[in-house]
């Protein structure tokens, strides 16, 4: 009897999974989905930058708080991780943040920790960029031309690399689809911006790092901000109003669950705009304000983030975090829900 019912269960599971997928509106990809896309197109500048508040496309980085609390130390907080081990690991992290060992995390201690974890992400980006630079520098001369990069990029899209190189040497026109051509034009703009004067369209390893990771260069950070404002600015005044910033992403919502996700998306962006980005609270975000907000090494912003993170879990309103509070709000800090926080805190700490 059980064997006859199994296909029905599998069919029902498939329907549920399809419904779940349709409930997600466009541009709400998870960190794991983004990581998969990055592996497929390693030499394409990533949309998601660890430790940076906005994605390249202007969407909020939903994993930001976990990235600046855990750094690269994310192992042990997966959905299938053993809860006791996860709680113990979280308390180990708590002890590292709690520098004066008073069993409380202050805003200054959290600020220092955020800066430390952000520096870890910076180093990780340097190492990734170095590997990608070697991949697109075939002659190993320490400089990559736009044409060399273009060949590698199109090859990653399925074009024949040898044929591409031959056509470019003979100045033949490359036939690519309209979407790919648009991406190439945007990438070339970024390439020009990363190319420090005198401009020669040749990028060194440091310049290539700025191309892939604009958070490493003040000039490229400005360029990234301009692109975000350009994409979100509806009236052309080169600044952002609240309605412009909270406008829903392109895409249709097919059911109530999808609508709920979009409602949360608007609510989160409204809070971020009013509490953190709009520094003078005049209802308008200038490029300068957005640039300060986006700068991952801005110590003032790190302190504001520290205070906000503490406020999320500070149930006793003492402006500090205690072990019980961190465990209770573990999903905010680690992405994992750890149950029995009150009963287990003394066992793990």
From TrEMBL:
CDD domains: EFh_CREC_cab45 (cd16225)
Gene3D superfamilies hit by this protein: EF-hand
Signal peptide range: 1-23
Gene Ontology biological process terms in this record: calcium-ion regulated exocytosis
Organism from which the protein derives: Hipposideros armiger
A Pfam entry, by short name: EF-hand_7
Cited InterPro entries: CAB45_EFh, EF-hand-dom_pair, EF_Hand_1_Ca_BS, EF_hand_dom
PROSITE patterns cross-referenced by the UniProt entry: EF_HAND_1, EF_HAND_2
Keywords: Calcium, Glycoprotein, Golgi apparatus, Metal-binding, Repeat, Signal
Official protein name in the record: 45 kDa calcium-binding protein
Gene name linked to the record: SDF4
EF-hand domain mapped to chain residues: 85-120, 124-159, 220-255
Subcellular localization: Golgi apparatus lumen
Recorded GO CC terms: endoplasmic reticulum; Golgi lumen
Cited SMART domains: EFh
GO molecular function, one term: calcium ion binding
Superkingdom of the source species: Eukaryota
Family classification: Belongs to the CREC family.
